[in-house]
Amino acid sequence: MIKGFARYVDMDMLHGSLWDKIIVFSLPLAFTTLLQQFFNSADVIVLGYYIGDEAMAAVGNNIPIIGLIVTLFTGLSLGANVVVARYIGMGSPEEANKAVHTALMLAIVSGLFMTVAGELCVSFLISLLGVPPEVAAPAKNYLRIYLLGTPFLGIFNFEAALFRSKGNTATPLKALFFASILNVTGNIIAVDVLSMKEGGVAVATVLANLFCAGYLFYRLTKEESLLKVSLKKLKLPEKGKAKAIIYIGVPAGVQGMVFSLSNLVIQSAINSLGAEVMAASAIAFTIESFIYSFVNSFGLAATTCISQNYGALNLQRCRKIFRVALGIDFVFSLAIVIPVLVFAAPLVSLFTSSQTVIALTVIRVWFVVCPQPFTVLMEIASSAMRGYGYSLPPAIVTLIGVCGQRLIWVYTVFPAHHDFGTLMATYPISWFITTLLLVWLYIGHQKIISKVKS
Asked: How many helices (H) and strands (E) does the chain have?
């Protein structure tokens, strides 16, 4: 039996000031997400430096597919985060511990499923993206090897979500920090010493994901808290808790996948513009991922804080969390976006020496990075609703606002004006539409829970 519940909460989200807790929670999480994105960025950078633009484009074409996988696992694991955090708020550590073991079993099952499904669909996905023949073979090779590490990726995301549920974002960051060093070192050895090209960097990434999952699992077995994992308790998922995790996690995963699916469609359109545009987009995506890591981290902080406080039935504090997270996220996003826009060209030159690629990358940066501070409202509103356990409606709204708009744009406006700027304009337009819809949904949801409480 788990005793002394209070000492198991790493960060007291139920009492006291919020702004400092949200910042302390969010910054390690932002760097964790950033390092996870850096895995693939490192592959792109090393191949671009040692091999050339074609090798970089081959891996870059896989970024939307990998993004789809990562966002799916991130969304699914969010269900575990919310459920465990809610039990913490309710003061039920034994139930939280049962949810921990259920979450890990779901991670293993979903990871294996994604590996098998992904391997069967490699050729279809590469064909769907319209990857040029000269880079199709290395793109397939990279993706097939990368998918072998999908179970480790899924397990790591669930483990990180479990630590996050009680306010610990530092341990997953530590794991990814050392894994990133392993990944970069492995990339350089594979390409420069062993001449393995894209296959070598994929192997290095798989090993890095294995390290992350293994390290966090070891830490969970050594925990003296409600997160403690016992191999004896790892059995078939408990039906009720599995259902709760899936109910929240699947819509959240779908919402993330909507963004990735729309990026797949856009990537196909990008490929029609040539190898230089493809390389430019791969570089820009790396920069955009850096910024989104911070924007998203404050949203996840809001989700966890609201989950705990909603479990404690403190609706007033939940609403305060929304306001505080929104304000902090906006300030942080401005602080990052402004320097990136001012120094865009020098920043891009770190990735390539091609002046054409640099110019094209800067165009995308202005279209995609400039609106980021205004997407904060979209992110926090969606994250807050997930914290309440209200996960499906935001996913549907995102499907309409993001995927719907971008599909229409790519197949109507872009063919009539076949240039890079026109294609990139779909990003700010889709964000504007989705933000309006999510804010409307959030206001309606708040009215509903107010009536229920009264």
From this structure: 19, 0
Chain segment 277-293, per-residue pLDDT in tens: 888 888 888 788 788 88
Please tell me whether residue 225 adopts helix, strand or coil conformation.
Answer: coil
Please report, for residues 12, 255, 269, 351, the alpha-carbon distance to residue 429 in angstroms, rounded to integers and kept in the order given: 39, 18, 17, 28
* Three-state secondary-structure class, residue 279: helix
Q: Is 63 helix (H, G, I), strand (E, B) or coil?
A: helix
User: In the chain, what is the greatest distance between 2 CA atoms, to the nearest angstrom?
Assistant: 68
Instruction: Considering only CA atoms, give the Rg of the chain.
Output: 21
Contact 378, 327 (CB under 8 A): no
Residue 37 sits at φ, ψ, to 5 deg, of: -70, -30
CA dihedral of residues 392, 407, 30, 362 (deg, nearest 10): -160
Angle 275-311/372-387 helices, nearest 10 degrees? 40
Q: What is the pLDDT of residue 288?
A: 85
The number of angstroms, rounded, from the C-alpha of 136 to the middle of its chain's C-alpha atoms is 26
pLDDT band at 9 (very low <50, low <70, confident <90, very high): very low
Q: Residue 279: CB partners within 8 Å, gap ≥ 6?
A: 48, 53, 56, 57, 60, 352, 354, 357
* Contact between residue 247 and residue 99 where contact means Cβ atoms under 8 Å apart: no
Residue 400 has pLDDT above 60, yes or no: yes
Residues ≥6 apart with Cβ < 8 Å to 432: 371, 374
pLDDT at residue 4 above 70? no
Sequence-separated (6 or more) residues with CB below 8 Å from residue 187? 42, 43, 46, 200, 201, 204
DSSP output for 295-330: HHHHHHHHHHHHHHHHHTT-HHHHHHHHHHHHHHHH
132 CB-near residues (< 8 Å, 6+ apart): 271, 275
Q: Which is higher by pLDDT, 52 or 124? A: 124
Dist CA 371 CA 333 (whole Å): 10
Rounded to two decimals, what is the model's pTM?
A: 0.77
